[in-house]
Hints:
single chain; alpha+beta; Kinesin; three-stranded antiparallel β-sheet; 56% helix; 14% strand; disordered N terminus; binds adenosine-5'-triphosphate
Amino acid sequence: xxxxxxxxxxxxxxxxxxxxxxxxxxxxxxxxxxxxxxxxxxxxxxxxxxxxxxxxxxxxxxxxxxxxxxxxxxxxxxxxxxxxxxxxxxxxxxxxxxxxxxxxxxxxxxxxxxxxxxxxxxxxxxxxxxxxxxxxxxxxxxxxxxxxxxxxxxxxxxxxxxxxxxxxxxxxxxxxxxxxxxxxxxxxxxxxxxxxxxxxxxxxxxxxxxxxxxxxxxxxxxxxxxxxxxxxxxxxxxxxxxxxxxxxxxxxxxxxxxxxxxxxxxxxxxxxxxxxxxxxxxxxxxxxxxxxxxxxxxxxxxxxxxxxxxxxxxxxxxxxxxxxxxxxxxxxxxxxxxxxxxxxxxxxxxxxxxxxxxxxxxxxxxxxxxxxxxxxxxxxxxxxxxxxxxxxxxxxxxxxxxxxxxxxxxxxxxxxxxxxxxxxxxxxxxxxxxxxxxxxxxxxxxxxxxxxxxxxxxxxxxxxxxxxxxxxxxxxxxxxxxxxxxxxxxxxxxxxxxxxxxxxxxxxxxxxxxxxxxxxxxxxxxxxxxxxxxxxxxxxxxxxxxxxxxxxxxxxxxxxxxxxxxxxxxxxxxxxxxxxxxxxxxxxxxxxxxxxxxxxxxxxxxxxxxxxxxxxxxxxxxxxxxxxxxxxxxxxxxxxxxxxxxxxxxxxxxxxxxxxxxxxxxxxxxxxxxxxxxxxxxxxxxxxxxxxxxxxxxxxxxxxxxxxxxxxxxxxxxxxxxxxxxxxxxxxxxxxxxxxxxxxxxxxxxxxxxxxxxxxxxxxxxxxxxxxxxxxxxxxxxxxxxxxxxxxxxxxxxxxxxxxxxxxxxxxxxxxxxxxxxxxxxxxxxxxxxxxxxxxxxxxxxxxxxxxxxxxxxxxxxxxxxx
Length: 867
Ligand SMILES: Nc1ncnc2c1ncn2[C@@H]1O[C@H](COP(=O)(O)OP(=O)(O)OP(=O)(O)O)[C@@H](O)[C@H]1O
């Protein structure tokens, strides 16, 4: 409130609210003229407190001043004051002499003259009143401000609370998902472990079964051997018995014939001469005793009867012999085994025996002893046979010289039977010798069919042995089948176990390693190189080293016959992962000329495209397949690391030299090439065209080891930004495809000058890569990534957050044995490295905010919709 001096001609009182003039005027006449206040009330006029001024009762015209903001509270209610300028917050008494004439006239019309003292009092009161109002207003403003602050704080808190609860919910949901996932993984792990355990148990049982079967076989073989020996013994004693029986029967028959002959002679001579008693040989004595009287007492008449008797006895004996022979014949029915089966059987038995002898030292010893014994027996039998034959010859000579007597006849018969016996023995020994020889060397016996039949037809024992053979052969066949089944089961279980093991490793983030053996090259074959590296099965590779066979295990092993399709088959899944927002790296490692470029790029005319061109197609195939669900942006950079310098392969000519490309890492640890040109591609063809352009700029030279040797590391980075059309989330994946230059020895490649420099740089970077691999596999605290640009580029792929696949390429030839072993050992170390693959996913809101930031940075306008 401003009050002008009373000497002023005109005093105007103006009121303002929050800086706005609200229009209350008081005009005060100069004291000399009329010491009174002239009040021009432009609003419903207030009644001054106390009402002593008489303003209220004067019919003064009241003017309504400017309207105050409606929101201003009515102060009368709060201050219990009569209604007076409710909207006034601030009051000014303004010296205003420049009122326009109309206004002034109006004002003059509505003038109220108040005595100066009263006016002064009134003004003082009004001023005091206003002061109070001002305080009140201040308090209100303060209160309002406080309220506003509280409200805004509450609002903020509420917002924070909402955000917090929103993120808490999200976090909880994520936790639940994570728990579920973990549970799933654990369940899968335990399932895998269970399977592995069950497979191991099965393996063990199978092995035990195999051992038991082997033992059983051995025991059976031994039992069979014992049985055979027993049978042979039985057979030979029975044969001996038969022989002796036969011999004695023949003797008896002969004697009887002689007797009959004599009797017949006696009968013929009986009319002329008397029957002379004869001294019968000892054998005939039996007959004499049988007849019960001496020949001298024998009456002639009784001779006929005796003859008949003798004949009868003779027939009886013959019948007996025939029966015996028949019985022998029927006792040994023809062997059910046909001739060829006998031969097969014998062959199988000999083979089996040879096998046993070669495996079991005791059996071999036994065989040697048997051979020795048989040799001795054979030579003895032969000697005896010679001797006997000699004796027989001598006797027959004697017979021709002298008249034969009965004694000589007997001895000659004995001789003949002995010779026969000996011949049999010799024959048996010879057969045994042949059989034992066959068993010793494992050759097939060359017995003739009659020989075989002869052996087999000799008795019960042989028959039983044959049956045993057949049985044994059956069992053997069964065992073999079982063994095959066991091996088959074992192989399939092993493959399955390996598969699950890989799956578990994959889940743990282990780097996958494939091994690819290339076919022998023309030069290697021409040099007469031998194959020393071979694929054993889907997961194993064997190397013949100077110290023996070494075996390496990988996630997949491809042989020289494997096609590019075979290699790419599993890689498709990794491409899908990169589109899903993972950082994926596929790189080929190996010595020069081992087939890295063939695997990664393919052959020159792209008749066998490698992983890179196939990956380009796969990316766009997947994008097309999921076109309704995702929207994907593909961009790529292509670099080469040549002589430790990064070069952008999209930039040619002089620009390429001046362009500086640096390896940088973003906050998430992802590597990117700063300064390299990144081009967008909308189709596989476009990407492939870029790739061809890049390959054309690559450094390739012919060396002694490879006509198209890569002298640089090729690094292709494909960025995949895919937006989920359903929930708006955005994922960022990167697919790095790296074709490393091969390690080489200058002596082998014939490198000189520039090539030597290139080789040194290649070897240096590869050695740094080796150091990183070693450190990672040993889980050292410091990993020397910074030692080389190559390791810097590969930092997010080795021990980083990528899903990594390494293809170790090797040559099969012995001339590269050392390098192959080094590569395989390195690859085995890589297998031990664990990565921490993570998905680069952002929610819709974050993606939008990032876009806004980008726009703001670029100085572009941001619309409300963007926020
Ligand atoms: N799996 C394969 N099948 C047929 N040929 C192959 C195979 N792998 C490699 N080759 C042939 O072997 C030769 C050398 O292969 P490549 O150039 O790919 O070796 P590299 O490891 O890339 O060598 P460098 O490190 O010197 O570049 C080429 O002629 C290639 O065609």
